[in-house]
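hi!! sorry for the late reply, been swamped w classes. u asked for the two structures so here they r. pasted raw, havent cleaned anything up. first the sequence of the first protein and right below it the tokens
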Amino acid sequence: MKYEHAGDVIPEELLREVQKYAAGRLLYFPAGDEKKTWGESTGYRERLQKRNLMICNKYAHGVTIAEIADEYYLSLDTVKKIIYSKKNDRHLTYAPTVESAVRYMDAGMIEEWIQCYLLLTRKTLTGLVESGKQEKQEKLYFGVVKFPLRLIGRDELTGSNNDPAHVQDEDAAAFPPLVIQYTEGKFHCPVQQEILAALKQRKVNAYPAVIGMNGSDDYRRFMKFYGTVLHYVNDIEG
């Protein structure tokens, strides 16, 4: 059997993990019952593709290679290879718009769009994580859907920074979808108060939104009351 250098076969970050347990040893990796492409059975390949997409998006929006390398524990050369690779046929261009969010939704990557939006607009969705207990719960997302704004109470629009005049009329077409939090049967809009105020001032009845929730309890409650009445935004122009 021909020997191959592990670095030519295994991704760099996975190789580091293997070296922790078996550096210098000869290992035999048995084939699976069915011939599958690398990483298919574990989902690792898909996670790697999503990570690489996030890296490309962050770099395209001003995050430096050094910052990316520190965040993902990668070498500078590895980050450069990811950024300048021509093999990424799943590349999606992030933008803080409904159109971009819908494209991510169609690719099964709405959570990645939210991460880009919150990071690259320097926002934090603190409302979704309020305690150590909640931090351990799985974050679930539903959308992009046409969301009736009447479901968000007027008490959401409080404080001096919520003046809709801060959002110019010409910006309305470029609004991102709302990022809504659903907790214990109530909807909240923790990070986009100005946009929400502008939409309500214009008497918009329904607007595209992504709804986030923590854990299975909120998810089951949401699906029971709203899962069949909120419709996905399939038409980008809609």
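now the second protein. again sequence first, tokens right under
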Amino acid sequence: MSLTAGVVAVQGDVEEHAAAIERAAQAHNYDVTVHEIRESGLVPDCDLLAMPGGESTTISRLIHSDGIAPEIRDHVDAGKPLLATCAGLIVASSDPNDDRVDELGLLDVAVERNAFGRQRDSFEAPLAVDGLADDEPYPAVFIRAPAIDDVESGDAEVLAAWDDRPVAVRQGPVVGTAFHPELTPDSRIHGLAFFENEAADVPTLEGAK
């Protein structure tokens, strides 16, 4: 079965996300074509969508000025899966704690920017993530990572925590992570977001296996 995926390509690890989507699709017996999204008009054709990290203020400004933001909201409203990572998580949140960010309000969470330190404080941590296909810890890469706050006041479900702070959440078809799942050969987070999320509307594999 063939799917169309998009990576919002205004900033961040676009090629790495595309490669991770391809690995996850292959592991789930899908064929996938990945498009880089830099202008409006492409998101409506996507079955899957990823919004990478980078600088949240820049991402927010560009997706709104280029007309991509309303298409992302429509994508999620249609039940299609979105994976938002690091700065993408900040933009997807309902409260970015930064007046410069025009948030999308797709996750009922507040975030704290750079909660685990600056660039020089980057680290990798073995995470226990709810919903992964096996019990092996996930090798999460944290780079200027935000933390997730106020989860209990909304509908977001915590999938993983580090240092007693939520770092991965799911709400309907949206999965948000404070870390960078594209920077590891382990594609299980992309698999969880796109192919193992029962709340997301992805064509089934019945007849495709």
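hope this helps!! also noticed smth abt the second:
Residues 205-209 have pLDDT under 50 and may be disordered.
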